[in-house]
Amino acid sequence: MANRGPSYGLSREVQEKIEQKYDADLENKLVDWIILQCAEDIEHPPPGRAHFQKWLMDGTVLCKLINSLYPPGQEPIPKISESKMAFKQMEQISQFLKAAETYGVRTTDIFQTVDLWEGKDMAAVQRTLMALGSVAVTKDDGCYRGEPSWFHRYPISQSKWSVPKRSCQGDDHRCWGDDYHCQEDNHHKDTLAKPNPRSNPRRKFPFGMYKIKSFSSQYFYSS
């Protein structure tokens, strides 16, 4: 755990309220999912907020987690370092956060690097991981490992669609990059699919979902 000086007065009261939001039961569920999802020989941490922070704070497990949600060869973080240098570890946390947002996690559900590195808000870290698991279940693209009931489906807003698909490059239409929508292979280019502003706001997407304009910002982990 990172070294921090003692908190006094109001700052201590605020920190105590933040720590009260941390869910020990959810910690256990998230650890189990992360180990299963990464499909690697990752050591199970001892229970407790401090151990959970230490397990994640170098960014290695987080980067392996986000990579495991992509098909082989399409991992967003190709090089994962196990460096003990603080700036390298914080850099990897930042890489994970950027990749998680690109994957589909809303900005409002993304924790700040210091929330994990300094242990300022581990409940926010839990919230990001919950959202990440929910996006994975919602996409249903074959990369998620675990029971679908572990997470609720995650609403994806109309303004941001970040599913890693190939985008059709045809001049007359946009096919969203799969054979279901387009048979012209020369139209395809490996990139992130972006929404077509001219499309119907309730157009059906490859995963059987629909874009809609607004959603609730609350997501809950399902046991």
Automatic annotation (TrEMBL):
SUPFAM superfamilies: Calponin-homology domain, CH-domain. Pfam families: CH. Residues 24-136 form the Calponin-homology (CH) domain. InterPro entries: Calponin-like, CH_dom, CH_dom_sf, SM22_calponin. The keyword Phosphoprotein applies. The keyword Cytoplasm does not apply. Keywords: Phosphoprotein. PANTHER family: CALPONIN, TRANSGELIN-3. Belongs to the calponin family. This is Transgelin 3. It comes from Macaca mulatta. The lineage of its organism: Eukaryota, Metazoa, Chordata, Craniata, Vertebrata. The gene is TAGLN3.
